[in-house]
Amino acid sequence: MEITPEMLTQLNTLTRREFTADEVYIFRVRLCDNEIDRDGERFSIDALHELSKLFEGKTGVFDHNPSGEKQNARIFRTEVVTDETKTTGAGEPYTSLCAYAYMVRTDGNADLIREIDGGIKKEVSISCSAGSHVCSVCGKERRIAPCTHIPFQEYSGKTCHVILSQITDAYEWSFVAVPAQRNAGVTKRYDENKSSQQDSQLFHCQRLLREIEERTRKEVISLNCCQKGAGSKAFAMAAERMDLEELLVLRDELIAEQEKSPESQLRPLADKENASLNEFCLK
Ligand SMILES: [Zn+2]
């Protein structure tokens, strides 16, 4: 990569002494993007801009260099790039966060630089903290109110994923030379020690919630014994589409109604007390 005077000025704001173009090696990496990743998560475009600011000046590590010792590179410029010709799985223009990093040339990193120049497959791993994890299907904040939607599953033709935003910190980035057969790309990790434990806890909670939702749905349908025929079918269909929160509200209403007037089950559907329930069914 050609080193422009502007790049030198930028990187020299981070160094203890001024470096010349001959003394440094500069390369560009894609840190992350807004595509849904292998964990069923994606960064919002705002999050990419937040990360862009946070990664400036951050030092990254090369994990697998041939000499076995760790080498460092430092990001001196970041940019958020939008490719209007490409659309992501979530239907947004493909947008990525790219970084320019420099290394000071030494005898020890000459081989590594040759490998990067030679176009070896590269994988960048970033570590950051996202304050918001929102479900793409229902818009709920999953860390506060976990919903029953599962990433990669389809709901009304839309694939569920988690949108990460409100980036609070960017801890590090590392650069890994991986064998050619592996897909090059970006892996993101955060709260690295806790994440697998949290994942299994989250998975357990989701399973429990699904179970509770299913049981509540059955209970709601059985509570609705006042309707027969088409009305009861419409009610069951409406209940199929409700989420746990809606089902619980309806269940409470049905129970309250039955307690208030046990004889209401025998009344005609036009009865005032049942009017709200009928409206619900027809929705
Ligand atoms: Zn959801």
Unique bound compounds: zinc ion
The count of helical stretches stands at: 7
Number of strands: 10
- What's the rounded overall pLDDT mean? 80
End-to-end Cα distance, whole Å, is 61 Å
Helix share bin? 25-40%
Q: How many separate domains make up the residues?
A: 2
Shape: elongated
| Alpha carbon gyration radius | 27 Å
Folded structure, characterized:
This protein has 283 residues and is α/β, with parallel strands linked by helices. The chain has 2 domains: 187 residues, no CATH class; 76 residues, no CATH class. 34% of the residues lie in helices and 30% in strands. Strands 1, 2, 3, 4, 5, 6, 9 and 10 form an 8-stranded mixed β-sheet that branches. The protein has a two-stranded antiparallel sheet with strand order 7-8. Strand 4 and strand 5 form a beta hairpin. The radius of gyration is 27 Å and the shape is elongated. The protein binds zinc ion. Zinc ion binds next to loops. The site of zinc ion has 6 residues, from loops.
Task: Give the helices and strands, then pairings.
Elements: H1 5-12, E1 24-33, E2 41-43, H2 45-55, E3 59-62, E4 71-87, E5 93-104, H3 110-117, E6 122-135, E7 154-155, E8 158-159, E9 162-177, E10 185-189, H4 195-223, H5 230-241, H6 244-260, H7 272-282
Helix pairs in contact: 4-6, 5-7
Residues 135, 137-138, 140, 147, 149 line the site of zinc ion.
